[in-house]
Structure formats: structure tokens, C-alpha cells
Amino acid sequence: MNVTIENLAPCKKLVRIELDPAAVDTAFGAIEKDFQKQASLPGFRPGKAPIPMVVKKYEKEIQEEVRKKLLSDSYRKAVEEKKLEVLGQPDVEEIQFGRGQAFQFAVTVETSPEFELPEYKGLPVKRDNKSVTDEDVSKAIEILREQRADFKKVERPLANGDIAVVNYTGTTDGKPLTDIAPTALGLTQKQGFWIEMKEGSFIPGFSEQLLGGKAGEKRTVNVDFPADFVSKELSGRKGVYEVEIVEVREKTLPAIDDAFAKTYDAESLDKLKEGVRRDLESELTSKQKRDVREQIIKALMGKVSFDLPEGTVAHETRNVVYNLVNENARRGVNREVIEKEKDAIYTAAAASAKERVKFAFIVQRIAEKEDIKVAQEEILRRVQILAQMNQIPVEQFAKDLQKRNGFTEIYDQLAHEKVLEFLENNAKVETVPAVA
User: Fold this and answer.
1) For the domain 150-252, what is the CATH code?
2) What is the DSSP letter of 109?
3) Which residue from 123, 212, 121 is spatially nearest to 162, judged by alpha carbons?
4) Is 160 exposed, middle or buried (0-12, 13-18, 19+ CB in 10 A)?
5) Minimal CA–CA distance to 177: which of 128, 97, 232?
6) Where are the chain's structural domains?
7) pLDDT band at residue 436 under the 50/70/90 scheme
């Protein structure tokens, strides 16, 4: 077998493979014998028909079987011989095939990038020394208290701290806000909307203009959309709202005592505080871990540069675009808006995909060098957790994964996590004062 390789582009190669006529004829002979064993021809017992008669009847099938076997076997041997790390499916171009002829074909493949792995142990990172304080616990309890607030309907003018239940319609320059900002559906018109009477609630300056109003009263509210407003199209513009006050509701908070704690299934207030502290400490630990890992990724990515395989980046870009579009759809962004922003979405997705693909190759190299592997039991545990989260029977979830090669994806995720844990354990961590 003769194998030659031509570099077409970074991470893309043209592999030319040629088998001599003798190897081709040997393959034909072997496949013909296989067919003879299975053939059932009139006048002959199964497996006893002469090969020439078998060949005459099954000539096309034999040729196809030989072609497939030679192509598969020689391609696999060529990849092993040349130590190619092939990504995705090869693109095969057959050049010559037939009895008594050399078998020639060319395969275009995408390969893993070649790069020197940078020093990945002892990466400098900073971890803040923040801890959960009594004040943090008190603030969290106050948030829980807010969730148990009661809103009683009252017949009096709106005062600070009350809730105004309103119907409103908003315009800018006499036009509906959606003419300027197509995604601003909730800002343009709403029925039965609750606004808390405190500074900055809803749109800055809005709630203050409702103070003193009573149920059934109508008011015109003028606002200036801030420069950093969530809807960029409305930033810096003036808005006019026609508002009807439907109800006035007085907000009352429960006392912070054992009875309040029991509404959160805690035995007492002290037990509730203990639970809140544990949750805050767990959340803080997770945040500190994320911060450290983000620093590790940034430091490692900055240490090496290499060309990325275009096909792999394109595939990952499609995945990111799919996720972004789905996320926008879940947020209520309509298709017209998504279509209008498709170029920006694709640009952002492509940049994200390149970073993810680059780091994936670095992680893979570190895993190979440090012999970091994922056990079958770990994959099964993750499958069980994911099945439970998605409320799907484990057997059905596993079948779905098998269909879309999902087990490979889970293996990669777990390996990724293990490598990050390894890098974190081997990082040079400096503890620094927490930023207030």
C-alpha cells in the first residue's frame, strides 16, 4: 500500500492511497469465497456452486463488497501508519477500481491541530477570602420575608411602599414603543401590571408620578429612558404613558419568628438561619471555584496559539447559534427580530465557538498527558442524574443518547471537568482581600 499526504490548509489534508493489483485480486478472491459459502444456485447444494457461476450471478454485489472492504481497511491502515488524528467524517473520492487494476482513491480529512502544550501546572490565580457574615444571613432572611409579603387591597391614595396595579400604554414621539424597539412588548402595553411605589421601580421616574393616585384615576406619566436602559433602541428617548390605576395594595411583611421559619419548613428561626448560612456558603464556594477556573482558562488560553480545524469550528458555531436562538425564543423574542439580528448572533457564536474548540483541544492534550480518564461508572451516574433532571426513565434516556452519540458528549464533559479540577488543584493560588 502506498500512502502520500498533501496539506491543503491548516488541519486539512489530502490522503492519497493506492493498492497494487495483486492486493485487489486477493480481496476479490476472498470475497468470492465468502459469497460461494452463502450462495444457493439451482442444481447445487448450498455452498457448493462453482465460483465462476457465483461470480456471474452476484458480480455487482461482489464488486461493491470488495470496494467497501478495501476502502475501509486501507483507509484505517493509512491513518494508523501516518498517525493521523482524524476529526469527523472523511470525504472520499474514488479514482480507480476494478479487477486486475490498482485501487486508487483520495480522502480529504480534517485533523487535530499540531501545537506544543504550554506549561499548565502552577498557573497563577487569585481567590478572594470572602466569607458569609451575619449581615449576609440577615439580608437573605429579609429576601425570604419579602417572598411571604401580603398585599391587601385598600381604598386610599397610593403611598411609598404600596403596590399600584395599573393598565398602561406607552409611546415615544407619538408612536408605539414597539415601532422603535420590536422586542419591547411589555413596555408598550400591559394590563394588571404591579408597580412598587419606590424610587427606580419599573422605569426611573415612573412610580413617583403615581403617588397620591387612587383606584379608578388616570394619569399621564412622562419618563426619560436612561442611557443604559435594557432596551437599547429606547435608550436616551422620552416616553409618554397613559396610565389607569386599577387598585391600590398595601404591602405588609410577616414578623421574623419561629412561625415565619415554619413557612419554609424549618423547625425554628435558628434552624432557618443555619440552613440559609449553609446555602450561602455553598453558593459562595461555587462562585469562588468558578472565578478561579475562569482565571485558569484565560491564563492557559493566552499561553498558546494554533490554527483550528474549520469544520470543527463550523459545527460548534452551529451548536452555539442553535442555543442562542432557542434562548431568545424562550425569552419571547419573535422570529422577525432574531432574523434581523442573525449576523450579530452568528458573529458572537463564531467567536465563542473558536474559544470553546481551542480550549477543548488543550484539555484533550492535558488529559492524554496526565492519563486522566472517565470510568464507565461515572458516565452511568451522570446519565442517571440527567434522566432524573429531565424526568425521563433512565432506559429511555440512554436509548436517546445512543441514537445521537450522546455518550461521547457526556464522556467529553466529564473529562473536561476532571481536567479543570486537576488544573485547579495544581494552580498557584493567592488569597486576596474580598472586594466590597
Assistant:
1) 3.10.50.40
2) E
3) 212
4) exposed
5) 232
6) 2-111, 150-252
7) low
Q: What is the percent of the chain with per-residue pLDDT over 90, rounded to a whole number?
A: 77
**CA proximity to 320, closest of 290, 362, 361, 354:** 354
Q: What is the mean pLDDT of residues 199-211?
A: 93
CA distances for 247 relative to 201, 218, 240, 251, 360, angstroms: 17, 12, 21, 13, 56
Alpha carbon distance, N-terminus to C-terminus of the chain: 69
Burial class, 317, CB count within 10 angstroms (exposed 0-12 / middle 13-18 / buried 19+): buried
Contacts from 291-297 at CB under 8 Å and sequence distance 24+? Answer: 291/127, 291/128, 292/125, 292/127, 292/424, 292/427, 292/429, 293/420, 293/423, 293/424, 295/123, 295/125, 295/126, 296/123, 296/125, 296/420, 296/423, 296/424, 296/427, 297/359, 297/420
Band of residue 358 on the pLDDT scale cut at 50, 70, 90: very high
Q: State how far the Cα of 84 lies from the Cα of 11, in Å rounded to an integer.
A: 10
pLDDT of residue 300: 94
Q: Which three cell numbers stand for residue 372?
A: 486522566
Tell me which residue has cell 501516518. 82
Q: Is CATH 1.10.3720.10 what the domain over 2-111 is classified as, yes or no?
A: no
Angle at 367 between CA 362 and CA 370, to 5 degrees: 120
